[in-house]
Write a structure and sequence with these properties.
Largest sheet: 7 strands, mixed
CATH topology of the largest domain: Rossmann fold
Distance between the termini: 40 Å
Shape: globular
Structural class: alpha/beta
Number of domains: 2
Low-confidence stretches: 1-23
Radius of gyration: 20 Å
């Protein structure tokens, strides 16, 4: 990880494009910093989250902002690589952003965490369910989504309820994959079970041949996948080509729509756990509000679970900022979010307090279809 001194030396000759050397905040503007994958095999996660947040913030800004201040997200591409994320985070902090928002992925968020702590920087709605960002709890980190332990507990409960006990795990060889594996192992141990086989894939890779060979040798009833959409799709295709007819379960980070598009007709029957309400099921008011706002936004906005999460994260930040007062500081933002307490955002329950910075434990299962739909 880059230190501040290393960054300062390397950046001495090149100012951060678009940020300049002055502090980022203007009198009428609140600037958030986001480092996420906008290129590479995990790009759709960052793109969709950012679009969803922008749908909400653009609407807020069109109505005069919060206390007369507009909200802007300065995004930087880290390609889902921790070193790039660390460098981006130093640049965003040095540029004076008000808070960090919508970082994507466990290894990248963990790379940013020491700087978040050192700078006492609010870190809002990281797109990860890893316990490493939650324990020990941090004053500066606010989670919108349920944990990977919550997701994998539901997955294992569903599988064992169906009588499927030979469960293998295909996981990314990094902190994200390990976090998901820990969740699966913990959930299985409650029922005196263990994974029948384990196999990994490297981050940002689709080289799954070895993993397919290892896991198929155990003849599992089901495979739990803890990876991003391209590698998970590659594993499903390759294992089915090998003759496997079992079930696949993924956690939400996979990127539901991106996985469906990667797989095409091969998506039929693939399961994904979700941590936000479906953007396609209009039973909840929040989904109807989200869909209406996406339709008004037009342009490149589109419906997806990742976009819905960005939209909800934007709403949480906006409410915290409103409560932070006319002249918000980072400390008053923290107090503002903590003061939200238990409330419903159109049927999606959130609960923040000084004692808990995890808003939700909402998890439900969804199933992909061959024609591109997502059923919940």
């Amino acid at each position: 990880m880059l230190t501040r001194r290393q960054f300062s030396l390397s950046a001495a000759a090149t100012a951060l494009a678009g940020f300049g050397t002055a502090r980022a905040q203007g009198a009428g503007k609140i600037i958030l910093g986001q480092s996420a994958a906008f290129t590479g095999p995990a790009a759709q996660l960052g793109i969709q989250f950012h679009r969803g947040a922008r749908v909400w913030f653009d609407q807020v800004n069109a109505q005069g902002g919060v206390h007369g201040k507009s909200i802007e997200i300065r995004k930087m591409d880290d390609g889902y690589e921790p070193d790039r994320c660390a460098a981006n985070t130093l640049k965003l902090i040095d540029a004076g952003v008000f808070a960090l928002f919508g970082y994507i992925g466990t290894p990248t968020c963990l790379a940013a965490l020491p700087m978040v702590q050192a700078e006492q920087m609010p870190f809002i709605a990281p797109f990860t369910g890893a316990m490493g960002l939650r324990e020990p709890a941090s004053k500066y980190v606010f989670h919108l989504r349920a944990s990977y332990h919550d997701e994998t507990a539901l997955i294992v409960k569903q599988l064992t309820h169906l009588g499927l006990k030979k469960i293998a795990v295909f996981y990314q060889n990094d902190a994200y994959g390990q976090a998901g594996l820990d969740g699966v192992t913990k959930a299985l141990s409650v029922q005196n079970l263990k994974p029948v086989a384990l196999a990994t894939v490297e981050r940002n890779s689709v080289d799954v041949a070895g993993a397919v060979k290892t896991l198929m040798a155990s003849a599992p009833d089901a495979v739990v996948q803890i990876s991003a959409y391209k590698s998970s799709a590659a594993f499903v295709r390759a294992s089915r080509q090998s003759g496997y007819r079992g079930t696949y379960y993924n956690v939400s980070f996979v990127g539901t729509q991106a996985l469906s598009e990667e797989l095409g007709k091969d998506a039929a029957g693939v399961m994904v756990s979700q941590v936000v309400p479906s953007p396609f099921d209009t039973a909840r008011p929040i989904t109807r509000e989200y869909r209406a706002d996406v339709a008004r936004a037009g342009s490149d906005a589109q419906l997806s679970f990742s976009s819905m999460e960005g939209y909800l994260a934007g709403r949480v930040f906006t409410e915290g900022l409103r409560r932070a007062g006319n002249n918000p500081t980072r400390d008053s933002l923290i107090r503002g979010i903590e003061s939200m307490g238990a409330q419903s955002m159109g049927g999606f329950a959130v609960n923040f307090s000084p004692a808990s910075h995890v808003a939700s434990k909402f998890v439900e299962l969804s199933m992909l279809t061959a024609d591109g739909r997502v059923l919940t």
